[in-house]
Here is the input.
Amino acid sequence: MKTRPPIIIIGMSRSGTSMLTRMLDRLGLFVGKKLTGNHEAVFFREINDWLLTQCSGGLEDPDTIKYLLRDKEARGLFGEFIKFSMKTPHVISYLGFGKYLSHRTPQKLDIPWGWKDPRNTFTLPIWLDMFPDAKVIHIYRHPLDIVNSLMTRRKRGLSRLNERHNMFRPIYWYYLMHKFILRNRVFVDIRGGSLEEGFTLWEEYFKEARSHVDRLGDRAVEIKYEDFLERPGEILKLLSEFCELKASDNDIEKVAEQANKSRAYAYLNEPELKTFSLEIADRLDTYGY
Here is the structure.
């Protein structure tokens, strides 16, 4: 039985990572049994969250992982601890019961497999310690489309605390307390609340991901979201070969039909974002936009 290294999908939230992972899943890439609504394997996302938490970081402040990466002793011990966790029954949430009985750990999978999580962008060195032959896919999107999404998500999160519930507000807030505080869940993403801060966060993710792509050479593929929407079939074929999937041209064509071209450069429909794009034109040009 020939085992395979994983395919690790990186890129900032709202960059098209969920879309891409769903498509590759349909083409034969095993990305986990228990998935979030964003097609993230719960098992690996929990580990990534744990790693960032040890460094007082998170999705909006992932660069703190550098403190762990610089600590040789802690990095080694954390890696061993994660390897152990991948051999416990907890990994059933990723493998499913059948694959757990036959393989016991993802490290022994003999099929194309991997996982997607924006946090991978910064925790990737830890995973490469464990899977030195892993392959990486980086997808990135115009930063202002992402900034717009972050600001929308912030407004939606804060709206939970609005006065709209009137007499039932205490009951609703009690529900929120249990859902978010007692379960230690993120209530709302705050950092992307301004155009400048959202763009700066995008820059951090992009630069980190690009550094991995440059370092990994032919073991990494980088995809521009807007190019993907323009030529989904062509790029999916490239990715299918990269991931060693057995997808037929017909399979790829059917999956490619899910690409929605209208989602490219959506920020141009927002006057505030369009104006901001002119103000930062030089910075955008640095990243090919």
